[in-house]
Amino acid sequence: MTAAAPAASAGPSAASRIAVVTGASSGIGAATARQLAAAGYRVVLTARRKDRIEALAEEIAAAGGRATAYALDVTDRAAVDEFATAFQKIGVLVNNAGGALGADPVASGDPEQWRQMYETNVIGTLNVTQALLPALTASGDGTVVVVSSTAGHGTYEGGAGYVAAKHAEHVLAETLRLEIVGTPVRVIEIAPGMVRTEEFALTRFDGDAEKAAKVYAGVAEPLTAEDVAETITWTVTRPSHVNIDLLVVRPRAQASNTKVHREL
Ligand code: 8X3
């Protein structure tokens, strides 16, 4: 007589077609939610701004997709645990929430901004990944995506606080992959370079539109949120045994973090 197979090795389940996206209220997160929904995933949109994710869920539904909005601050562990209890069937987690604050040199950087960046980018990713890992494993075919940055792979002047947080996110992804090998969960890191979104640079420079615009000055075509969402969707939709460990994606005009071609 053959014993019943445990859930974790029962193979892909319906749960594996449910994707949670953090930071889904704008930019790369929103674009990823739209594209995963178009690829057939039921998407769970999370972000602090409830009105934005509700509007996006409606937009996805109007386009024939399935989406649920859930207001969540990834740095609030109790709220993340409550979220994990409410959504026990999950196959994909896209850790996208995060961002940069300030571009000051180490000599004058604001420790509070460093702390906040560590909280949102690193602890946020840690919180949600820890809370959803049991469900991802139980799905029999789970995927954790960590949206890091090229800032997670090299530094640049004025970037140290953000660069340090993104390096930590890279380490989290790489270490988790080592630790859970043998379970049915992939760990994928996407490291985008210069992406022009409505909020990234504006948030970094505390709403200063002029400083934000300078980031992209003269760059013919920075990446768009849709470009990055396409790479995320491509990695997630590879067959289960294919793990894209790390995908670095930059605009053609950017050869490195510090070498950008500008037509000024
Ligand atoms: C964004 C890339 O160059 O602004 O994650 O650090 S950069």
TrEMBL record:
Keywords tagged on the record = Oxidoreductase
Name one molecular function that GO assigns to this entry.
Answer: oxidoreductase activity, acting on the CH-OH group of donors, NAD or NADP as acceptor
Name of this protein: SDR family NAD(P)-dependent oxidoreductase
Which sequence ranges form a coiled-coil region, renumbered to this chain?
Answer: none
Please list the residue ranges annotated as the Ketoreductase domain: 17-198
Can you tell me which family this protein belongs to?
A: Belongs to the short-chain dehydrogenases/reductases (SDR) family.
Carries keyword Calcium?
no
Lineage of producing organism: Bacteria, Bacillati, Actinomycetota, Actinomycetes, Kitasatosporales
